[in-house]
Amino acid sequence: MIPPNCSIIIEGRQCGLTSTCIISVATDGEEYMIATLCDDHFVDFKKQIKYMQEIGKLPKGNVRFQMIKPVGTDCVLNSKNCP
Ligand SMILES: [Zn+2]
Questions:
Q1: Ligand 1 centre and the CA of 83: distance in Å?
Q2: Span from the CA of 32 to the centroid of ligand 1 (angstroms)
Q3: Is residue 4 part of a domain?
Q4: Domain that holds residue 57
């Protein structure tokens, strides 16, 4: 199950925008879902990942970004690459 909205919480309130990306960390064959993010918070989060791993807020391992935008978007902008 993918939470449909951005899971970033700022000052006690959840962002709540539609999420476009799932962040997960893979360690020793296991994968943990960390958060689902909207476009804005995806950029912020990406900058902070290294730091968050250093201070132990995130498990160390390979960070994976999985876009959950509808696949059709690129297809419209760049029709040559349509399947
Ligand atoms: Zn957000």
A1: 31
A2: 20
A3: no
A4: 9-81
